[in-house]
Amino acid sequence: MKAFLREILGTLILAVVIFLLLQTTIRHSVVMTASMEPTLPIGHHLLINKAVYKIFHEPERGDIITFYPPNNPKTVYIKRVIGLPNDTVAVKEGMVYVNGSPLSEPYIKEPPSYIFHQQKTPENNYFVLGDNRNNSTDSHTGWTVKRKDIIGKAWLSIWPPSKWGLAPNYPLQEQLASSTKLLFQLP
Length: 187
Prior knowledge:
Layout: H1 2-25, E1 26-30, E2 45-49, H2 52-55, E3 64-67, E4 77-83, E5 88-92, E6 95-98, E7 101-102, E8 116-120, E9 125-129, E10 145-146, E11 150-159, E12 165-166, H3 172-185
Antiparallel strand pairs: 1-2, 2-11, 3-4, 3-11, 4-9, 5-6, 5-8, 6-7, 9-10, 11-12
């Protein structure tokens, strides 16, 4: 009988440890607005990795993140990181520019129809945009995301089943590096 009770107690302790580990590292999130279409339609379910930015690295350009926005801190937003701290970002003639380099953005619904005059992203802040550029409340409306307000990075797409797999993050850093290389190679 003692061995049986020890086994039950051991199983319960292991279950509690696994539960607490999952609660501190993963979060479920549902896309509630059209701001990330076509990448993430309304109703799309994601698992958010809450540990990646605490343990491994800081947010990177192209990451899809969840965060508490400054204009509505009780709500969770999901957007794409475009500008890092101290980057300059501008939007003009349907293009987004980071540090003077235009981005090629195959993931957006349509080019932005607005102008955002060049601004420097403050220290410890991130400039974020929705992929549905013309239907998104994001940094082009005058705010940035404080590092402390970032919850985590979109990690896995879990619903609908046809979209199972890694979340569609996009490596903008590589794109900026290659566009800078091209600028220096021009005659």
